Amino acid sequence: MSSTAKSSSTLAANKTSTQSQQPVPKNWPEDITYLTDHTYSAAVTADQRTALTRTGTADATWTQIPPTSIQAPSPLLEIRTVTDINHPAAGQRGLFATQHLAPDSFICLYLGHVHTNTMSDQDPHSDYDLNLDHDLGLSVDAARSGNESRCTNDYRGIAERPNAEFRDCYVQVPCTKRAAGMKWERRAGKRKAGVRAGEEVLVNYGKGYWEGRKAVASFRRDEEMLRIAQLALDS
Ligand SMILES: C[S@@+](CC[C@H](N)C(=O)[O-])C[C@H]1O[C@@H](n2cnc3c(N)ncnc32)[C@H](O)[C@@H]1O
């Protein structure tokens, strides 16, 4: 599963996550912890964390997202329950733009629990797992905790093409070892071609995602999940 501000009154601030007094977006699922930054599995090593930090010039083209562009909840987005019965994810949640999101503009980070890709540290059944760094063997799972991004659906069966995509970017995180007290650390963020106000934000999960879901559905003998995965693969 990679722009700016409207009144925060479009997002309810009357509920809080279980861990803090952090306001959560309207329609946020009650059983999911709302995050404002990643959490990390104990299996993620200090070396892996360091490798996520911007050090060299090879990745200098990656966008640095200024802290002012990252708001939680995001005023750019609204989580809605999909009521259109022709929508393949009807009854589930989807993510919608509250205003026009300009082409190539930053939309939202994909936050969740960063884990290693070892069998013991991942949930193969998760529908919310996004690769963070293949070489480092790290992914982000938003199955139990995350932010608005976890509600982004795949474009298959909904639109002709995706209108957003996940791109690598950097955000500033606190660092006591740096004189500035901050360093740039890698994240996945959504941006792309432009999304009209009220339009659903859709990405391309990739065929591999749906093939994986199909395999899990077959293993679980979950007919409904199998049907959805096959539909997505056929569309
Ligand atoms: C990351 S979640 C997306 C948010 C999800 N709709 C929700 O309510 O939390 C991924 C799951 O959403 C559903 N989904 C997303 N895009 C879909 C599509 N194009 N067709 C059918 N189901 C889709 C599938 O159940 C998939 O496993």
UniProtKB/TrEMBL annotation:
Residues 1-30 are annotated as: Disordered. Residues 75-206 form the SET domain. Residues 1-18 have a biased composition (Low complexity). This is SET domain-containing protein.
